[in-house]
Amino acid sequence: MPSAILDKDQKTSEVVRRRSLTPPISIYENATSYIVLLAMPGADEKSIRINVQNERLIVEANLKGSPDQNAQEKYCEMRLGDYRRELEVGDSIDVDKVEATVTSGLLKLVMPKSKHSKSRKIEIKSV
Question: What residues does each domain of the chain span?
């Protein structure tokens, strides 16, 4: 995982963790951006919220917990509920240019690097 973007779920309060599912995540980096993929089955653009607060990116989604209000659960291997994931981004991304798309429950965030986080080669001069 890039050092500029760190997973901060371990600092999330125990109450929030018990209530929310933590979606699996993949983070990629190229010369200009970080690309983050989050698997959130059942989530669509209306149920997902993405915010940046205190140098943290917070992704949340609220889903219905039962397919039928009158149905009683008999067996369940698939949990439905709320998703929550927090990433520490610091000043490494340009928050105003982040783009988000969701396709079949896969959320993709393209987060352009800020000017300070872009690497550059420093030329060494002999004296």
Answer: 6-66+79-112
